Amino acid sequence: MPRSSLQAPTSVVMIRPHHFTPNAETALDNHFQTHTASDAASMAQAAHAEVTRAAEALQAVGVHVHLFEDEGTDTPDSVFPNNWFSTHTGGHVAVYPMYSPNRRGERRQDVLEMLKRDYRVQDIIDYSGLEQDNLFLEGTGAMVIDHLERVAYAARSKRTSEILLERFCTHFNYEPVVFDAVDANGKPIYHTNVLMCIGTDFAMIGLDSIPDAPRRREVAERLRRGERDIIELSHAQIADFAGNAIELQGREGLVLALSSRALRSLDAEQRETLESHVSLLPLDIPTIEHAGGSVRCMIAGLHLSARTPQTA
Predict the structure, then answer these.
(1) CA–CA gap between residue 296 and residue 248 (Å, rounded)
(2) If you ran DSSP here, which 8-state letter would residue 173 be given?
(3) What is the dihedral angle through the alpha carbons of 256, 257, 261, 265, rounded to the nearest 10 degrees?
(4) pLDDT in tens, 106-143
(5) Which residues sit opposite 248 in a β-bridge?
(6) Is residue 312 part of a domain?
(7) What is the tens place of the pLDDT at every residue in 169-205?
(8) Is the Cβ–Cβ distance between 161 and 135 less than 8 Å?
Protein backbone atom coordinates (compact mmCIF):
# COMPACT_ATOMS: atom_id res chain seq x y z
CA MET A 1 0.00 0.00 0.00
CA PRO A 2 1.35 3.46 -0.86
CA ARG A 3 1.97 5.61 2.17
CA SER A 4 -0.69 8.25 2.87
CA SER A 5 -0.56 11.40 4.98
CA LEU A 6 -2.93 13.92 6.52
CA GLN A 7 -0.67 16.59 5.04
CA ALA A 8 -1.19 15.42 1.45
CA PRO A 9 -4.73 15.55 0.02
CA THR A 10 -5.85 13.01 -2.56
CA SER A 11 -8.28 15.42 -4.24
CA VAL A 12 -8.02 19.05 -5.31
CA VAL A 13 -9.99 21.89 -6.87
CA MET A 14 -8.58 23.79 -9.84
CA ILE A 15 -10.06 26.62 -11.91
CA ARG A 16 -9.45 26.81 -15.67
CA PRO A 17 -9.63 30.46 -16.80
CA HIS A 18 -10.83 31.48 -20.24
CA HIS A 19 -9.74 35.14 -19.99
CA PHE A 20 -6.60 34.98 -17.85
CA THR A 21 -4.50 38.09 -17.35
CA PRO A 22 -2.19 39.35 -14.57
CA ASN A 23 -4.23 41.36 -12.09
CA ALA A 24 -3.43 45.09 -12.18
CA GLU A 25 -5.08 45.59 -8.77
CA THR A 26 -2.68 43.21 -7.00
CA ALA A 27 0.52 44.36 -8.69
CA LEU A 28 1.19 47.06 -6.09
CA ASP A 29 2.02 44.58 -3.32
CA ASN A 30 2.68 41.36 -5.28
CA HIS A 31 6.27 41.92 -6.42
CA PHE A 32 6.36 38.44 -7.97
CA GLN A 33 4.16 39.63 -10.84
CA THR A 34 5.97 40.26 -14.09
CA HIS A 35 5.13 42.04 -17.32
CA THR A 36 4.87 40.22 -20.62
CA ALA A 37 4.66 41.41 -24.20
CA SER A 38 2.03 38.80 -25.08
CA ASP A 39 -1.33 40.07 -26.25
CA ALA A 40 -4.39 39.33 -24.12
CA ALA A 41 -5.84 36.66 -26.40
CA SER A 42 -2.58 34.73 -26.67
CA MET A 43 -2.00 34.90 -22.93
CA ALA A 44 -5.52 33.69 -22.16
CA GLN A 45 -5.15 30.79 -24.58
CA ALA A 46 -1.77 29.81 -23.13
CA ALA A 47 -3.03 29.91 -19.54
CA HIS A 48 -6.06 27.80 -20.46
CA ALA A 49 -3.74 25.20 -21.99
CA GLU A 50 -1.37 25.27 -19.01
CA VAL A 51 -4.16 24.54 -16.54
CA THR A 52 -5.49 21.78 -18.80
CA ARG A 53 -2.09 20.08 -18.98
CA ALA A 54 -1.48 20.52 -15.24
CA ALA A 55 -4.81 18.92 -14.36
CA GLU A 56 -4.11 16.04 -16.73
CA ALA A 57 -0.66 15.49 -15.20
CA LEU A 58 -2.14 15.37 -11.70
CA GLN A 59 -4.86 12.96 -12.79
CA ALA A 60 -2.23 10.76 -14.44
CA VAL A 61 -0.46 10.18 -11.10
CA GLY A 62 -3.72 9.46 -9.31
CA VAL A 63 -4.74 12.83 -7.85
CA HIS A 64 -8.47 13.45 -8.25
CA VAL A 65 -9.03 16.88 -9.83
CA HIS A 66 -12.30 18.79 -9.69
CA LEU A 67 -11.80 21.17 -12.60
CA PHE A 68 -14.11 24.19 -12.77
CA GLU A 69 -14.33 26.65 -15.64
CA ASP A 70 -14.15 30.43 -15.29
CA GLU A 71 -15.50 32.08 -18.39
CA GLY A 72 -15.84 35.51 -16.77
CA THR A 73 -13.74 38.54 -17.66
CA ASP A 74 -13.70 40.32 -14.27
CA THR A 75 -11.82 37.75 -12.15
CA PRO A 76 -8.24 37.79 -13.50
CA ASP A 77 -6.82 35.74 -10.58
CA SER A 78 -9.49 33.02 -10.55
CA VAL A 79 -6.82 30.45 -11.42
CA PHE A 80 -5.68 30.73 -7.76
CA PRO A 81 -8.63 29.26 -5.76
CA ASN A 82 -6.58 28.39 -2.66
CA ASN A 83 -6.95 32.02 -1.54
CA TRP A 84 -10.70 32.06 -1.09
CA PHE A 85 -11.41 28.72 0.60
CA SER A 86 -9.71 25.93 2.51
CA THR A 87 -10.82 22.55 3.84
CA HIS A 88 -9.88 20.70 7.00
CA THR A 89 -10.22 17.25 8.53
CA GLY A 90 -13.42 16.67 10.42
CA GLY A 91 -15.51 18.18 7.63
CA HIS A 92 -14.67 21.84 8.14
CA VAL A 93 -14.49 24.49 5.39
CA ALA A 94 -13.43 28.13 5.62
CA VAL A 95 -14.29 30.93 3.17
CA TYR A 96 -12.03 33.97 3.28
CA PRO A 97 -12.09 37.76 2.86
CA MET A 98 -9.93 38.98 -0.03
CA TYR A 99 -7.81 42.12 -0.05
CA SER A 100 -8.35 43.18 -3.68
CA PRO A 101 -11.99 44.01 -4.56
CA ASN A 102 -11.75 42.32 -7.96
CA ARG A 103 -10.73 39.05 -6.32
CA ARG A 104 -13.91 38.80 -4.27
CA GLY A 105 -15.88 37.55 -7.25
CA GLU A 106 -13.72 34.41 -7.30
CA ARG A 107 -15.78 32.89 -4.48
CA ARG A 108 -18.11 30.36 -6.08
CA GLN A 109 -21.21 28.77 -4.65
CA ASP A 110 -20.97 25.89 -7.13
CA VAL A 111 -17.62 24.85 -5.64
CA LEU A 112 -19.08 24.86 -2.13
CA GLU A 113 -22.13 22.91 -3.31
CA MET A 114 -19.83 20.30 -4.89
CA LEU A 115 -17.96 19.96 -1.59
CA LYS A 116 -21.21 19.37 0.29
CA ARG A 117 -22.40 16.89 -2.33
CA ASP A 118 -19.24 14.83 -2.76
CA TYR A 119 -17.61 15.14 0.67
CA ARG A 120 -18.66 14.98 4.29
CA VAL A 121 -18.90 18.68 5.15
CA GLN A 122 -19.92 19.43 8.72
CA ASP A 123 -19.76 23.22 8.60
CA ILE A 124 -18.68 26.18 6.50
CA ILE A 125 -17.31 29.18 8.38
CA ASP A 126 -17.57 32.25 6.17
CA TYR A 127 -15.25 35.11 7.11
CA SER A 128 -15.83 37.03 3.88
CA GLY A 129 -18.14 39.60 5.48
CA LEU A 130 -15.13 40.95 7.38
CA GLU A 131 -13.98 42.62 4.16
CA GLN A 132 -16.26 45.47 5.26
CA ASP A 133 -14.02 45.86 8.34
CA ASN A 134 -10.82 45.75 6.26
CA LEU A 135 -9.86 42.40 7.76
CA PHE A 136 -8.32 40.01 5.25
CA LEU A 137 -6.94 36.47 5.36
CA GLU A 138 -6.31 35.00 1.92
CA GLY A 139 -6.57 31.31 2.70
CA THR A 140 -3.64 29.00 2.18
CA GLY A 141 -1.82 31.80 0.42
CA ALA A 142 -1.75 33.87 3.60
CA MET A 143 -1.19 30.76 5.73
CA VAL A 144 0.94 27.67 5.22
CA ILE A 145 -0.73 25.01 7.31
CA ASP A 146 0.95 22.09 9.02
CA HIS A 147 -1.96 19.67 9.32
CA LEU A 148 0.12 17.17 11.30
CA GLU A 149 1.47 19.53 13.98
CA ARG A 150 -1.63 21.79 13.85
CA VAL A 151 0.31 24.98 13.10
CA ALA A 152 -0.61 27.88 10.79
CA TYR A 153 2.46 29.82 9.64
CA ALA A 154 1.77 33.35 8.40
CA ALA A 155 3.89 36.21 7.12
CA ARG A 156 2.53 39.65 7.94
CA SER A 157 1.10 41.53 4.95
CA LYS A 158 -1.89 43.55 3.82
CA ARG A 159 -3.51 40.21 2.99
CA THR A 160 -3.06 38.67 6.43
CA SER A 161 -4.90 40.16 9.41
CA GLU A 162 -3.42 38.94 12.68
CA ILE A 163 -6.81 39.47 14.32
CA LEU A 164 -8.50 37.21 11.78
CA LEU A 165 -5.64 34.72 11.89
CA GLU A 166 -6.16 34.35 15.65
CA ARG A 167 -9.88 33.87 15.08
CA PHE A 168 -9.28 31.24 12.40
CA CYS A 169 -6.82 29.37 14.61
CA THR A 170 -9.28 29.38 17.50
CA HIS A 171 -12.10 28.05 15.28
CA PHE A 172 -9.97 25.40 13.53
CA ASN A 173 -7.62 24.46 16.38
CA TYR A 174 -4.25 25.61 15.00
CA GLU A 175 -1.30 27.31 16.67
CA PRO A 176 -0.50 30.61 14.90
CA VAL A 177 3.14 31.36 14.09
CA VAL A 178 3.48 34.88 12.69
CA PHE A 179 6.58 36.58 11.32
CA ASP A 180 7.76 39.31 8.96
CA ALA A 181 9.17 38.22 5.59
CA VAL A 182 10.82 40.25 2.83
CA ASP A 183 12.26 39.57 -0.61
CA ALA A 184 15.83 40.24 -1.75
CA ASN A 185 14.99 43.94 -2.13
CA GLY A 186 13.55 44.24 1.36
CA LYS A 187 9.95 44.41 0.17
CA PRO A 188 7.30 42.52 2.17
CA ILE A 189 6.36 39.14 0.71
CA TYR A 190 2.66 39.22 -0.09
CA HIS A 191 1.80 35.57 0.62
CA THR A 192 3.40 33.06 2.95
CA ASN A 193 3.05 30.22 0.45
CA VAL A 194 5.63 31.70 -1.90
CA LEU A 195 8.38 31.35 0.71
CA MET A 196 7.54 28.02 2.32
CA CYS A 197 6.06 24.59 1.65
CA ILE A 198 5.37 21.95 4.28
CA GLY A 199 5.28 18.27 3.40
CA THR A 200 4.94 15.20 5.57
CA ASP A 201 8.68 14.65 6.09
CA PHE A 202 10.21 17.87 4.79
CA ALA A 203 9.75 21.62 4.73
CA MET A 204 11.13 24.08 2.20
CA ILE A 205 11.52 27.62 3.49
CA GLY A 206 13.34 30.81 2.67
CA LEU A 207 14.68 31.44 6.15
CA ASP A 208 16.76 34.35 4.89
CA SER A 209 13.46 36.05 4.04
CA ILE A 210 12.77 36.43 7.78
CA PRO A 211 14.88 39.46 8.73
CA ASP A 212 14.59 39.15 12.50
CA ALA A 213 17.21 36.60 13.53
CA PRO A 214 15.55 35.42 16.80
CA ARG A 215 12.23 34.97 15.03
CA ARG A 216 13.97 33.16 12.16
CA ARG A 217 15.42 30.67 14.66
CA GLU A 218 12.04 30.23 16.35
CA VAL A 219 10.30 29.45 13.06
CA ALA A 220 13.02 26.95 12.10
CA GLU A 221 12.84 25.29 15.52
CA ARG A 222 9.05 25.00 15.32
CA LEU A 223 9.34 23.31 11.92
CA ARG A 224 11.97 20.90 13.22
CA ARG A 225 9.69 19.80 16.05
CA GLY A 226 7.84 17.88 13.35
CA GLU A 227 11.04 15.87 12.70
CA ARG A 228 11.21 17.07 9.13
CA ASP A 229 14.17 17.64 6.85
CA ILE A 230 14.49 21.41 6.44
CA ILE A 231 15.46 22.56 2.95
CA GLU A 232 16.55 26.19 2.97
CA LEU A 233 15.70 28.22 -0.11
CA SER A 234 17.61 31.26 -1.33
CA HIS A 235 16.00 34.55 -2.33
CA ALA A 236 16.63 33.62 -5.98
CA GLN A 237 14.88 30.26 -5.54
CA ILE A 238 11.93 31.96 -3.84
CA ALA A 239 11.72 34.33 -6.82
CA ASP A 240 11.58 31.24 -9.04
CA PHE A 241 8.63 29.93 -6.99
CA ALA A 242 10.53 27.01 -5.41
CA GLY A 243 8.56 27.54 -2.20
CA ASN A 244 5.21 27.54 -3.99
CA ALA A 245 4.74 23.78 -4.15
CA ILE A 246 2.25 21.32 -2.64
CA GLU A 247 2.51 17.73 -1.48
CA LEU A 248 -0.33 15.53 -2.74
CA GLN A 249 -1.31 11.88 -2.44
CA GLY A 250 -0.89 10.04 -5.71
CA ARG A 251 -1.75 6.49 -6.73
CA GLU A 252 1.77 5.24 -6.00
CA GLY A 253 2.57 7.46 -3.03
CA LEU A 254 3.36 11.05 -2.11
CA VAL A 255 3.94 13.55 -4.92
CA LEU A 256 5.32 17.09 -4.83
CA ALA A 257 3.68 19.27 -7.47
CA LEU A 258 5.81 22.30 -8.39
CA SER A 259 6.51 24.32 -11.48
CA SER A 260 9.18 23.44 -14.02
CA ARG A 261 10.82 26.78 -13.25
CA ALA A 262 10.86 25.97 -9.53
CA LEU A 263 12.40 22.56 -10.12
CA ARG A 264 15.14 24.02 -12.32
CA SER A 265 16.09 26.40 -9.52
CA LEU A 266 16.80 23.61 -7.01
CA ASP A 267 20.31 22.24 -6.66
CA ALA A 268 21.21 18.54 -6.76
CA GLU A 269 21.32 18.15 -2.98
CA GLN A 270 17.91 19.76 -2.52
CA ARG A 271 16.40 17.53 -5.19
CA GLU A 272 17.95 14.46 -3.62
CA THR A 273 16.50 15.32 -0.23
CA LEU A 274 13.05 15.87 -1.71
CA GLU A 275 13.18 12.68 -3.76
CA SER A 276 13.92 10.69 -0.61
CA HIS A 277 10.40 11.63 0.54
CA VAL A 278 8.28 12.32 -2.56
CA SER A 279 8.11 11.92 -6.33
CA LEU A 280 8.64 15.25 -8.07
CA LEU A 281 5.96 16.32 -10.53
CA PRO A 282 7.00 19.45 -12.47
CA LEU A 283 4.23 21.38 -14.22
CA ASP A 284 5.01 23.83 -17.01
CA ILE A 285 3.05 27.04 -16.27
CA PRO A 286 5.17 30.03 -17.42
CA THR A 287 2.18 32.14 -18.44
CA ILE A 288 0.37 31.74 -15.13
CA GLU A 289 3.53 32.59 -13.21
CA HIS A 290 3.43 36.08 -14.75
CA ALA A 291 0.51 36.68 -12.36
CA GLY A 292 2.81 36.26 -9.35
CA GLY A 293 1.71 32.79 -8.25
CA SER A 294 2.64 29.26 -9.15
CA VAL A 295 1.53 25.65 -8.65
CA ARG A 296 0.59 25.88 -4.96
CA CYS A 297 -1.62 28.88 -5.65
CA MET A 298 -3.42 26.97 -8.42
CA ILE A 299 -4.38 24.03 -6.21
CA ALA A 300 -6.92 24.00 -3.40
CA GLY A 301 -6.36 20.74 -1.54
CA LEU A 302 -9.37 18.87 -0.16
CA HIS A 303 -8.74 17.58 3.37
CA LEU A 304 -12.23 16.10 3.55
CA SER A 305 -13.64 12.56 3.57
CA ALA A 306 -15.25 11.64 0.27
CA ARG A 307 -18.78 10.29 0.40
CA THR A 308 -17.86 7.60 -2.14
CA PRO A 309 -14.44 6.37 -3.29
CA GLN A 310 -13.01 8.54 -6.04
CA THR A 311 -10.76 7.58 -8.90
CA ALA A 312 -8.46 9.92 -10.75
Answers:
(1) 11
(2) T
(3) -10
(4) 999 999 999 999 999 999 999 999 999 999 999 999 99
(5) 255
(6) no
(7) 999 999 999 999 999 999 999 899 999 999 999 999 9
(8) yes
For residue 5, being part of any structural domain is answered with no
Structural domains of the chain, count:
1
The answer to the question of residue 109 being in a domain is: yes
Instruction: In whole angstroms, give the CA distance from residue 25 to residue 111.
Output: 24
pTM comes to 0.93
Q: Which domain holds residue 226?
A: 11-302
Question: What's the one-letter identity of residue 244?
Answer: N
Residue 118: other Cβ atoms inside 10 A: 17
For the stretch 127-134, contacts whose Cβ atoms lie closer than 8 Å and that sit 24 or more positions apart, written own/partner, are 127/94, 127/95, 127/96, 127/97, 127/164, 127/167, 127/168, 128/84, 128/95, 128/96, 128/97, 128/98, 128/104, 129/97, 130/97, 130/161, 130/164, 131/97, 131/98, 131/104
Does a structural domain hold residue 272? yes
User: How many CB atoms are closer than 10 A to CB 277?
Assistant: 17
